[in-house]
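Lab meeting notes turned into a lecture example. A postdoc, R.K., suggested we walk through two folding results consecutively so the class can see how the record format repeats. The first protein's sequence and structure tokens come next.
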Amino acid sequence: MENVVGIDLGTSNSVVAIVEDGVPTVIPNKGGYKTTPSMVAISESGKRLVGHIAKRQAVTNSVNTVYAAKRLIGRKWDSPAVRAVQQSSPYSIVEGPHDDVRIVLRDQIYSIPEISAFILQELKMVAEQYLGGGVDKAVITVPAYFNDNQRQATKDAGRIAGLDVIRIINEPTAAALAYGFGKDFERRVAIYDLGGGTFDVSILDIGNGVFQVVSTAGDTFLGGEDFDIRVMNWLIQVFQERSGVDIRDDRMSLQRLRDAAEKARCELSTVRETLIDLPFLYTTASGETHHLQENLTRDQLEDLTRDLVDRTVAICERTLSEASVDRGEIDDVILVGGMTRMPLVQRGVAEFFELEPCKGVHPDEVVGLGAAIQAAALIDDSQDLLLLDVTPHSLGIMVHGGAFHRLITQNTTVPTSAGHIFTTVRDNQTSVKILVLQGESDDATQNELLGEFILSGLRKASRGQVEVKVTFSISADGIVSVAAQDLDTGREQSITVTATSGLTEDELQRLVEQSQGYMVEVRASEEFERERQKVEGLVTEVRELFPQVEGIMSGTSFGRDAIAKAEAVLERAKTEMQGNDLRSLSEVSGSLERTLNMFRGVVTKTNLS
């Protein structure tokens, strides 16, 4: 069976998993960690760094290190979220050519799907190394409240990384799959997912292998990053009060503060107080140095961030209300995401649902495991699993007066379709313009425009006399199709809504080709490194035998010639190990093996004599 993986592409950390022998398993990365930081950097030499290696150099290379790119994926340039990220990020964010967001690293401009693809490509290589074969297909998770553009941008990132994304599924749904996998029960569960950059809550009914989403809601700009920014701003204020220096424009100092804020926030999940110690945080033009040393208590952290937790609880309340579900009907509350380790979050959830959250799943791994379960089910017909998800946003059209008319409401199970008959609004109107919108505002201009088309050729008549039927359809993959039909003539016009990531097809193809070239280089580099290590081991063994062989063979001209050739091979090996020519290194490896075999034969023969 072909290898297909599940990937949780997270804001702070990412996970890749697979189902092996019926058991979902997280694949550890090259460092042995089960989570990989969602960070990308470009070094001074132009080398791409991903994961832990990018995180370790973030302080000294802050302007060329990207974190939390997921908060920008699929967003328009004029989005308030983009402005918020600009204010707190050390790296440069610029407007792309298609009203999208791009990032500048080492004077080169990268799209957000491209940055995300670097992370996905790293996870793909991790999986391939673990499985000993190629990985071409994946299920990737996204926040339940992502819109079509954000989902398409994630799919484009997978394509750039060399992955066929066979399904995009919602993170809370994936967590529910992992929670209920292989269990024979019927339960109604709430998935509370507070990660590094986003928040989602979903209500699901689980039973007999069926996972049905009842309701979902969220905030795509609410997560651990916001908690860390609160601590950062507090530290900036404290430092300014003590030193008189405002360090908001010092990128290296900001990165050190960000790292310290994240570390302190994590520590305060298990201790009541922690010390934030940053020596030489800032040096003035005159050479005066300023240090930061400040205690932060759990109570202070909770005071700084309580309103953020309250926002998540308000969303939970709205979700239950929209689904007409009483909190007493919830059997289990599942906590997902690293932020759910925070005691304030756990208390807030327990108090709202009047139920202690379930601790039976790993908050960092459960989404990736669920993605792997869905991936296995999609390629294995024998899997008895049915996932019924919902559309997170309402779909409809703009009608006369600028109002938004919903045809498919949020939390409708997909696949689905719905239609409505509209009439002309002007006398002798011969065409209608259909604006396809997504959102929850009654004001059409406040919702997101997905596409538009014109139905022409209508007969001339008084207003209200010509009827046009508009039909919306959503597939299981979330693809939206809209058709408009003149009921008098049967004339029809339709559109398949194609969300955009901000990249054109030409740009995507170019990035895919670049990605393929990079993979060739990486594999060649890895092969060279394996051969170099082999040569290094052979050199060590030859050198260990050299004194014995020299003592045995140096008395004859043949022996001295053999020793000279061996020395030449060792010298060539030293040179080739410092180069990058795999073919030459392989030739040296062969010569070393022959030399080693000869040395061993000489020593063995002498010992037997």
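The second example is placed directly after the first for contrast:
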Amino acid sequence: MQSRTGFDRLLALFTVPDDDPDLSLAQFRAFSKQIPLLYAILVINTLAVSYTFSAFAPPMLSVGLPVLLSAVCALRCVWWYRQRDVPVAAAEAIRQLRRTQRLAFLLAAGFTAWGLALYPYGDAYARGHVSFYMSITVIGCILCLMHLRSAAIVVTLVVLTPYSIFLLYGGEPTQGAIAVNVVLVAAAMMRILFVNYRDFADLIVSRRELVAEQSATRALSDENFRIANLDALTDLPNRRRFFKDVDTVFGRDPDGPPLAVGIIDLDGFKPINDTFGHTTGDRVLTEVAGRLAAVCEGFRAADATVYRLGGDEFGLLVTGRADRDTLETLCRTIVEAVRRPYPVATTQAMIGCSIGYALRAKCRATALGLYECADYALYHAKRHHRGAAVQFTDEHEAQIRAQSLLEQTLQAAELCKELTLVFQPIVHLDDGRVAAFEALARWSSPVLGAVSPGSFIPVAERIGLIGTITRVLLGKALEAARGWPEEIGLSFNLSTHDICTAEGALRLVALVREGGVAPSRIAFEITETSVATDFDQAQRTMEMLKALGCKISLDDFGTGYSSLTYVHRFPLDCIKIDRSFVADVEDNALARQLVGSLAGMTADLGLTSVVEGVETDAQRRILAGLGCDMAQGYLFARPMPAEAVAAFLGGSRGTAVGGS
């Protein structure tokens, strides 16, 4: 039994083991990187000997045979070079290693036989070259075959055994000494080979054990990573992952290949949440996420990834071919996908999306700057191209610089001194009597000159100055209204901050109580977009104002996605029909029908209708015939300063304003 065990151990030295797949794969990967060098050494040394003996030995022996053997080595070298990055299974690795060992035996025997056959033909120097060739080549082979121990042993024995015997018994004494020297060096090299192979095998075992130890903790770590980087509702990468990926891709090479960042914001999603509840809203968001992911996965022109940034906002990261044409195609596909109907309760809901995107080549040289450019492009899309995609351009960059100057100037402004009001009358269509005046803000800056409300109000909301502006302007409006006749009302526009924050609501209540004007004369105007930030708080604010006796008007009616939702749920007194319906009411039968329907609905709800933007007497007559209650526009009067109101009222007494 003991002898059998020893024989098995001896046999194991000459075989490729198959009991450890990890070791076999590691041997194959290491060996595939070293074998080209082995063949290169063998071919170069062989051709050198061939050249030396070309003058002594027959051509077939000195040239033909070494060229044939070198060609075999070259072919094997090419094959192994191609396998260096090709993944293989453990069984295939073992099969290739065993084939290599068999081939190593054949090549070692062939080269050794060739070298010994050449030996008698040369002179002393040429024979010395053969000895050098045998010794240095076998040492090189041992080093290159160290990860395939069995092949290294086979090659060493096949080469050195006949070589040493030949030189010891058939050569000169010097050659015999060289043979002994080479055998001793080879023995030392084999000792090193055994130690390195054992360490290599131990390393593979240790690595496997380490992987096993880490697998349990990695599973927990992976789960934590997934939770930290995936959105819980949609399973899309979340906001944290979005900014990390943008930083990573941008940081690889700031001047590298095309890169684009986009922000997708849903249009009309908030009313679905408000009407059908958050559970239904979550289902719609999940469906939107699925559609966006499907579009990105199926888009072949560039690599696109979608993220959920929060609420109804999604992020987009595009790499590869991120040029304008590609991005326009991708965004158009996204818009079309989002527009498809969504099953909601027993009906279907329709929403849209607006997209802002920015290309690295067009924007600031930081990842955050790229995101900010996309965010500004989205802001521009929401204001001017709702339901479409907008790319950040040089014009937007100029607008940002202008807005930065506007912000700085507004923050440094003496608001009480620089802010003023003008007033535009709202008149009864039946008899032309003035019912109220709408207060319109004006800012005359000593630095920028006259700045329109459409420019400075959004900036004031963004930088937190809108509360101060409301306090200043409402105070001035109430001061002006105190001098008007009691039957003349005041209409005042509110911002998002005024109605969607508790602080803004309390400020409004305090100003009305201290203003010296009967609350029943005051109508506060709101818009659909201004209440979208916090629907519930906006409703509470309006109920507080109604409790004081103030009126509530819904401005720009018909321009949003779900005005009827607000009409149904808010304590309204008046609906202001947007000027876009009036522009072609004289020539467009559909426009007349729409306005008539809106006026009829308003009357059925017990509300007052006011039509904006009336500029011709023909429009006035048509609107009156359609049942509209009141109107305002240039036909009746342009906005006027406070001191002109008294004269205007005096001139309009007894005469229908804007008509006969």
